Amino acid sequence: xxxxxxxxxxxxxxxxxxxxxxxxxxxxxxxxxxxxxxxxxxxxxxxxxxxxxxxxxxxxxxxxxxxxxxxxxxxxxxxxxxxxxxxxxxxxxxxxxxxxxxxxxxxxxxxxxxxxxxxxxxxxxxxxxxxxxxxxxxxxxxxxxxxxxxxxxxxxxxxxxxxxxxxxxxxxxxxxxxxxxxxxxxxxxxxxxxxxxxxxxxxxxxxxxxxxxxxxxxxxxxxxxxxxxxxxxxxxxxxxxxxxxxxxxxxxxxxxxxxxxxxxxxxxxxxxxxxxxxxxxxxxxxxxxxxxxxxxxxxxxxxxxxxxxxxxxxxxxxxxxxxxxxxxxxxxxxxxxxxxxxxxxxxxxxxxxxxxxxxxxxxxxxxxxxxxxxxxxxxxxxxxxxxxxxxxxxxxxxxxxxxxxxxxxxxxxxxxxxxxxxxxxxxx
Length: 428
Ligand code: HEM
Hints:
The protein is mostly helical and 428 residues long. It is built from 17 helices and 2 strands.
């Protein structure tokens, strides 16, 4: 867009009486106005007036948290549109899917956007978790935010899982049958948990009603609350982690390195929350425009990618759910296929003990690994042990997922994808 034209339009809008009542500052020209723009706007005030250069470096956060957030926005927007048509009934849900495909204007694109954004969100939340781990960003003071993050990760999986059943096709029916059977293996509470999820012993109308309520109300509401807490904590914890964070570590500045062109009082040499001479001011930039414009650009990019995928690839829809005719091999969604592979060795160990231990380890991680070295840097040498353990677990998860996706066929038998036609899995 032509920048001066945009600027002229904005200024003329901001100068009208209505404009001034909404945009108090207009298009910021001075540093004072840049700060005012951030604090006087409802949307922008969530963020600080200034941010560290390190925090806006794309090579540090890779924008993964923001991408997850934008995908969530897209999911909420398209999900609400889908709700105008969807009926959570075993006799009507599938027809609605067909109507979206053939009757409703842009219905297919909206459904596709919702589906691809959901897959991408699972992927990007996982990548964000890995980024936070490899930069040691879960350490003090961010331990609690890491736990909030773990709950967001589980909720993301829960949202995907509950959404899976809604089209009421063969894929939906059998993937949820497999998924809830896995939950049923848990000792003592397993069968009760499965009954609670399904509202019975098999996937039917009661299950669809429950999954629908969880998918459109319970989980999104809980997720939005947790995201709000998550972002609030990012701000309260002093923005993104960075290597020069003082925390409780006294940063020794050798006398010879103190800036010679500055005057300072003794207080500025103290550690803690007191600013250090010659450091903080130079490390920060105004959020407007440095952060805000990057965020807008990233949002446009994410929206464009989701739209592109939705236009060129359709979300899968198989035949109407048939409880007496299982497909050749019922598979879970790709992000549960590693789990399904584990369950094929031992339902109890693979479906309950190992995932349970992994989630517990994730929750306890910031309290077990407390050394402050290496925070704010990718793959810091000081964190080689933690990084190695995490990488081994990650590689194992990837290998099991690849085996479950490509090397398993009828009756979960071994197939070689280059010899046999690949089994049908969700999203392919
Ligand atoms: C719905 C899912 C999530 C959303 C929308 C989200 C959003 C964000 C955003 C926007 C940031 C700041 C910018 C960035 O780091 O990219 C952030 C930071 C952070 N997130 Fe998440 N996040 C999610 C899930 C998670 C998960 C699964 C974890 C870990 C288990 C996590 C842990 C953290 C931590 C510790 C920070 C601070 C990082 C630092 O200071 O360097 N988040 N998150």
